[in-house]
Amino acid sequence: MNYSTALRTPSTKRLEDIGKADILVGIPCYNNERTIQHVIEMVTEGLDRYYRDAHSVILISDGGSTDDTREISRGVELKPWQERVVQIYRGISGKGSAFRAIFEAAVMLDAGACMVVDSDLRSISPEWVRLLIDPVLNDDYEFVAPVYTRHKYDGTITNNIVYSLTRAVYGKRIRQPIGGDFTFSRDLAKFYLEKPVWSTDIAKFGIDIWMTINAIARNVKICQARLGVKVHDAKDPAASLGPMFVQVIGTLFNLMEHYEPYWRNVEGSRAVPVFGDGTPQEPEAVDISLDRLVQEYKLGFNQFSRLYEEIFSREVFVSLKEAVKAENREFGFPIETWVKALYELAATYHNWKINRVRLINLMVPLYYGRVAGFANSTWDMNSIEAEAVVERQAEKFEAMKGYLIERWDEKHTEPVEFPHMR
Fold first, then answer.
1. Full-prediction pTM beyond 0.90?
2. N vs C: which end of the chain shows fewer Cβ within 10 Å?
3. What residues make up the domain containing 77?
4. 381 and 271 fall within a common domain
């Protein structure tokens, strides 16, 4: 069902009673009873420490948790002059619907700054509040993205796809385009709210990249906040990132289609200002199943090899086929093959009209293969050393952007039949 609002009537009335706020903090959540109390405590402490004279509202935008997330949220003691709204949002189940409610609240309250933070954070501190809010509240920025120190195997979609593509296509070096912790202006919230996307995958996991790219394309003033180490409920990419992958990459490719006039003539990339002085330190380790990643790649290649041969250039297909022969610890996935494969897939998505979701599903085994190759190439590195590998990859995407445009302008025949998708 398409709802005209993600806010429920009691929440709307409560926000009307509050009237106006200087700062809104939105916390989207779903079954986060283990971490939500800490997140709220750090937010209320940060607001009290740095913005005691401001009128602040904390909105818990819940997806219908079946644990005690909402009960715990209501029970956390807030500092003076802060208000709280806890609600189950309306709309498609997903983070984007939770954000829609937050955007609506930001507009209703005419908030000077709206910060959103993930509900599974264990490393959030009161300092995060200042670092994220100050640029919007006091320095005329309209969008603040996070910069974290993350374990080398945390954020594999960001490290291997989203950062590189966002940087190369749109020309802005935003290190964490889907980081989850942002601040934006009331005007930008209104702009987001007016987009007719709330019955699409953007209402699910596509929301973070959608917000970032729309901010870039709108040419608002953007910066980043260096927040230090990010510790959260990280997931093994081989086990649990499939649906998220499809939604994020689908949104990314869809936006490339939508904003083609903006990015076609963008050359190179520019640094985006960074606030904060975090000293790099090694984050908490994130487990990764190399054996499973390689197995998933090989199974996927064997299942879809006929389609891969049809979709990819001869050079890319031969490289993908060659990788199947390698054992787990010797498995490699050359960066140039990965860049060309992603650019060819983006161009195919541009040309296909019917089977776009299936095309993105075809990418999942290749993504597993690239993560396995990245894991092997960084196995003996710490996370700071592995960051240099991510940067080299991003530079390669940037240097080869001409290849994207060349492939983008070619015509691709869309296949009539697909093999069974697992």
1. yes
2. N
3. 9-275
4. no
